[in-house]
């Protein structure tokens, strides 16, 4: 047990802090991974909960689908931007404090969404809610690095990533049923309930896992003297550090393997949102004309692919890393994770996209394009898990910062996808859109061969 607990409101937490978080029992670690994954699911549900209800929201506010999709895009934009500061705070103030505060804010902001009486008000509160809950995807990956040794992180990150990716699977199902019965505002009350539950779960069961940083006595004395001599300049400097320091994480993009992992992850995430937006628009329109709840159920095969990809991808990644450590005389080589598993996953993703795109365009029996979504889900989860674990392993001292860069860029991809999917489907049709995505996917497969040859250790 930690002699001096440092977590926010640590007295109410049932699980006590340890000096070395690696020493938590396996059952406690599983519980914490579940909490991290559940926390990661909540903001993802917030983005996907609109899909079955877009037509109802557009009718309620007397606008079109493009405007409603803006709320999804801006939500994703805030989910990408705010983790820059959440990760900075989590590295200095701790994981628990960031989690507890951010999910309380998420719950409160969703009350504003549920009570919105205009599109502008809805978009504003959606941006705030997305920014608040965005902490989970950045801080969660860092916290998993706090409690698991490198050779166990792949499997743990596989389970963790199920949350952010199952959110888009589950949300349309619940949202479709709620929208059909009580209207679109009930979907926001669902987020309020889930957000409140997550807040309480973290308050009572999530201990602080960040190891305290030891600041040299000389530096502490200089900082205290600076504060005493010129308080105004001191606080101005503190504010400047808070605002600008998170952007220093972009320096990590100087490493080729780091850039490759982030942009491959982001490409997959943007493609995911293009596919989800296409499903919502395609199957609610002629000749399918499915109801909101039936459209929501069509996301299940994609989610099943995520589950299987999680079970396979994380363990495969850990096995590859163990093999590499053995072959390198016990030396840790994070790039070793980017091996045959990534090639296999990339081929499956490309196959799933081309199958979905052309069979959906030709309006074949609904089951055929849905096979494509399953393949895409399976392959993309393996890519997400492997690249995320690689980023965490590469930057052991800046785990949350590394993940925040990944979150920022991939959410920018998702935001753009939310803006352009419907116009692109109308302009070039679904088949050609997903053909272009498949070509880009093949280019990433080719890039992997080059990156493996460069093989510069991302940790510097």
From TrEMBL:
Protein name, as recorded: Major facilitator superfamily (MFS) profile domain-containing protein
Q: Which GO terms describe its cellular component?
A: membrane raft; plasma membrane
Query: Tell me, what does this protein do in biology?
Result: MFS antiporter that does not display functional linkage as drug transporter and performs functions that significantly affect biofilm development and virulence. No substrate for transport has been identified yet, but plays an important role in the growth in the host.
Q: Does the keyword Transmembrane apply?
A: yes
Q: How does it sit in the membrane?
A: Multi-pass membrane protein
Q: Give residue ranges for domain Major facilitator superfamily (MFS) profile.
A: 32-453
UniProt keywords (A-Z) are: Membrane, Transmembrane, Transmembrane helix, Transport
- The lineage's top-level taxon is Eukaryota
């Amino acid at each position: 047990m930690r002699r001096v607990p440092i977590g926010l409101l640590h007295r109410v937490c049932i699980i006590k802090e340890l000096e070395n978080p690696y020493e938590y029992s396996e059952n406690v670690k599983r519980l914490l991974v579940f909490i991290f994954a559940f926390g990661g699911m909540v903001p993802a549900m917030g983005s996907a909960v609109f899909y079955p209800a877009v037509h109802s929201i557009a009718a309620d506010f007397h606008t079109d689908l493009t405007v409603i999709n803006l709320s999804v895009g801006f939500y994703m934009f805030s989910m990408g931007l705010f983790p820059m500061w959440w990760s900075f705070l989590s590295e200095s103030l701790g994981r628990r404090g960031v989690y507890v505060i951010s999910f309380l804010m998420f719950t409160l902001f969703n009350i504003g969404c549920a009570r919105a009486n205009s599109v502008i008000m809805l978009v504003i509160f959606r941006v705030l809610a997305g920014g608040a809950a965005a902490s989970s995807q950045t801080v969660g990956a860092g916290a998993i690095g706090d409690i698991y040794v490198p050779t166990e992180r792949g499997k743990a990150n596989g389970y963790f990533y199920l949350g952010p990716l199952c959110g888009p699977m589950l949300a349309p199902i619940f949202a479709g049923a709620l929208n059909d019965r009580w209207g679109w505002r009930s979907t926001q009350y669902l987020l309020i309930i889930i957000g409140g539950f997550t807040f309480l779960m973290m308050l009572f069961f999530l201990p602080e896992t960040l190891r305290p940083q030891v600041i040299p006595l000389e530096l502490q004395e200089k900082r205290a003297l600076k504060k005493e001599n010129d308080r105004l300049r001191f606080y101005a400097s503190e504010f400047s550090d808070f605002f600008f320091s998170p952007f220093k994480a972009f320096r990590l993009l100087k490493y080729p393997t780091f850039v490759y992992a982030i942009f491959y992850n982001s490409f997959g995430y943007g493609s995911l949102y293009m596919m989800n937006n296409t499903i919502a628009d395609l199957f609610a329109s002629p000749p399918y004309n499915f109801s909101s709840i039936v459209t929501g159920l069509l996301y299940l095969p994609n989610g099943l692919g995520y589950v299987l990809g999680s079970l396979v991808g994380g363990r495969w990644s850990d096995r590859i890393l163990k093999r590499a450590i053995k072959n390198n005389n016990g030396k840790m080589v994070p790039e070793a994770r980017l091996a045959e598993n990534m090639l296999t996953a990339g081929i499956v993703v490309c196959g799933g996209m081309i199958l979905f795109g052309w069979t959906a365009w030709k309006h074949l029996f609904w089951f055929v394009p849905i096979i494509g979504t399953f393949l895409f889900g399976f392959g993309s989860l393996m890519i997400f898990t492997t690249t995320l674990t690689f980023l965490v392993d590469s930057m052991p001292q800046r785990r949350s910062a590394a993940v925040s860069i990944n979150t920022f860029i991939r959410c920018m991809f998702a935001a753009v996808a939310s803006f352009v999917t419907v116009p692109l489907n109308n302009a070039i049709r679904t088949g050609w859109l997903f053909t272009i995505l498949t070509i880009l996917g093949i280019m990433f497969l080719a890039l992997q061969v080059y990156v493996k040859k460069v093989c510069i250790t991302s940790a510097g």
